[in-house]
Write a structure and sequence with these properties.
Elements: H1 3-12, H2 24-34, E1 38-41, E2 49-54, E3 60-66, E4 86-88, E5 91-93, H3 97-117, E6 124-130, H4 141-151, E7 157-160, E8 172-174, E9 176-177, E10 179-188, E11 192-193, H5 203-216, E12 230-238, E13 245-246, E14 249-258, H6 264-277, E15 282-290, E16 293-294, H7 299-310, E17 317-319, H8 327-330, E18 336-339, E19 353-355, H9 356-374
Parallel strand pairs: 3-6, 3-7, 7-18, 8-17
Antiparallel strand pairs: 1-2, 2-6, 4-5, 5-19, 9-16, 10-14, 10-15, 11-13, 12-14
Helix pairs in contact: 1-3, 3-9, 5-6, 7-9
Length: 376
């Protein structure tokens, strides 16, 4: 069994359901310290964050991952226990195998091998981990980036280990992500009896035309890298639970997924203009969970494609699809960002798994990217 597979199995045995790290980062810190890395915990709010680096002068290349996993769901639905890794037909089954302990293990071993082969390498090579990627993401990489901004720590290039591949390893990488903007809307009315609507004001009825207009709006046309902005209502809560009471208020949650064709400010302003035009008595709280980012052609993308081609992966799509990742926080440091990881077909699912051969290839790809970025 390879070093990467063995480390993945060791990590997957630890039930690190977000935000619990379950000792994963201690294991990794010990290995990297032994390899000559400087290791610094940057914990906050019960969340474990680990920053480990080697080198001192020159460009900073960082590998970014998370040690937390999503809950398992119904244990009886799993073919084998989710935290007892099983090998079957060349596949490793366990919660977190694909998202993303396999990537983390590949990163750790790739960094160990890189430093062993190039102990006096130029630049800085680092690993940044959190246990809060699958959760609220408040005290994880967002907190670390705030600390990095305070101390002037830069990251020039960042490889994120999220499972980006669709069908085979390396067939797709992410070079950016859409932004995510949440709106928490409260529309007030007047509670009353359903038999006497003239004495009440139903906020659901009042809000419906505005919501229909928002859902039908064409917010932008997108651009070469991002699709048009999308608007979706995710939750609506109103009423007392009684069938004969007109509610006094309704609460609505909605979300924008948007690229660089629109700004958060324009989306907020246009939304509130619609609400005001419909004469609603409302209050809205906005929550920005990430701005869009895009990595243009440059050293990191060139190094990634070269590493893929050197290992026989000739056809790779570079896009900005999918949800969000912790790359959205790293983007605030002005970093070039590429996401490259295993096949994502089973992430967050029952019987999550990853190909063992892909783990070894992923480690070679990460090492190849590091050599091309830092050694030229």
């Amino acid at each position: 069994m390879s070093d990467i597979a063995a480390l993945t199995i060791d990590l997957c045995r630890r039930a690190s359901v977000t935000p619990d790290d379950a000792g994963c980062q201690d294991l990794i810190a010990s290995r990297l310290q032994h390899a000559g890395f400087v290791v610094e915990p940057i914990d906050a709010g019960g969340v474990r964050n680990l920053w480990a680096w080697h080198g001192s002068v020159g460009p900073v290349l960082t590998f970014l991952g998370h040690t937390d996993v999503v809950p398992t769901g119904d244990l009886s639905a799993w073919t084998s226990p989710p935290f007892e890794p099983q090998l079957r037909d060349g596949l490793l089954y366990a919660r977190g195998a694909a998202d993303m302990k396999g990537s983390v293990a590949a990163m750790v071993v790739a960094l160990e091998r890189f430093v062993a082969a190039h102990p006096a390498h130029p630049g800085v090579i680092g690993l940044l981990l959190t246990s809060d990627e699958e959760g609220e993401a408040v005290h994880g990489i967002r907190h670390v980036v705030d600390e990095f901004l305070r101390r002037g720590q830069r990251i020039d290039h960042c490889v994120v280990g999220e499972p980006s591949s669709e069908h085979t390893l390396g067939d797709r990488i992410r070079i950016g992500r859409r932004g995510s903007l949440h709106g928490h809307l409260r529309v007030r009315g007047v509670q009353g009896h359903v038999a006497f609507p003239e004495k009440a004001l139903n906020p659901i009825h009042a809000a419906a035309p505005a919501l229909a207009e928002l859902a039908a709006m064409r917010w932008d046309e997108g651009n070469a890298h991002f699709p048009p902005t999308g608007f979706q209502i995710s939750n609506m809560h109103g009423g007392t639970g009684a069938y004969n009471v007109i509610p006094g208020e309704v609460r609505i949650d909605f979300n924008f997924r948007f690229g660089t064709a629109s700004s958060t400010e324009s989306l907020m302003q246009r939304t509130e203009a619609v609400l005001a035009r419909h004469g609603l008595d409302y209050r809205i709280v906005w929550e920005i969970s990430g701005a869009p980012f895009l990595t243009a052609d440059g050293p990191l993308r060139d190094a990634t494609h070269a590493a893929l081609q050197a290992h026989g992966i000739a056809h790779t799509v570079a896009d900005t699809g999918g949800g969000t990742s912790d790359g959205r926080f790293i983007a605030a440091l002005g970093s070039q960002i590429v996401e490259l990881g295993p096949v994502n077909a089973t992430i967050h699912k029952v019987d999550e798994h990853v190909r063992l051969a892909d783990l070894d290839m992923l480690g070679a790809l990460y090492q190849g990217i590091a050599e091309r970025v830092l050694l030229g």
